[in-house]
Amino acid sequence: MLCLGSIVVLFIFCILSKPEEDMEQEIPLTETIKARVKDLEQRRIELLQKIDDLADVGASQLDELKTKLLSEMAKAKANINAYTQSRIERLVEISNQTQETVHRLNTAQQLVDRLEAPLRQF
After folding, report:
1. Using CA atoms, how far apart are residues 122 and 113, in angstroms rounded to an integer?
2. Number of domains observed in the structure of the chain
3. What three-state secondary structure class fits 67?
4. What is the pLDDT of residues 61-92, one digit of tens each?
5. 25 occurs within a structural domain
6. For 99-108, what is each residue's pLDDT tens digit?
7. Which of 26, 61, 83, 98 reaches 20 to 30 Å from 115, CA-CA?
8. Does residue 91 lie in a domain region?
9. How many whole angstroms separate alpha carbon 82 and alpha carbon 74?
């Protein structure tokens, strides 16, 4: 088995013994990689900006929808309150008419009873 020191020496030897052509090929490759990384970073920034823009548009649309919904709910509430109030007023009117009719019926019944009482005596 090779010891760790031997492996390190072999690794250094391999690096130092690379032909100069390989070293020259690495430099353009490194520059290409750097350029690609820079392009990817720029693309990432553009995508993040698009995401932020879409989030702003979405938030704006949600605000509009919320405003419309609240407006419709307020209209519905007003309609329900108006309908309920009109029904209450109508029921109060019917109740008053019923009480008046009951009062008239009681008065008429008393009149009939008074007129009928002398006839019963005969």
Report:
1. 15
2. 1
3. helix
4. 999 999 999 999 999 999 999 999 999 999 99
5. no
6. 999 999 999 9
7. 98
8. yes
9. 12
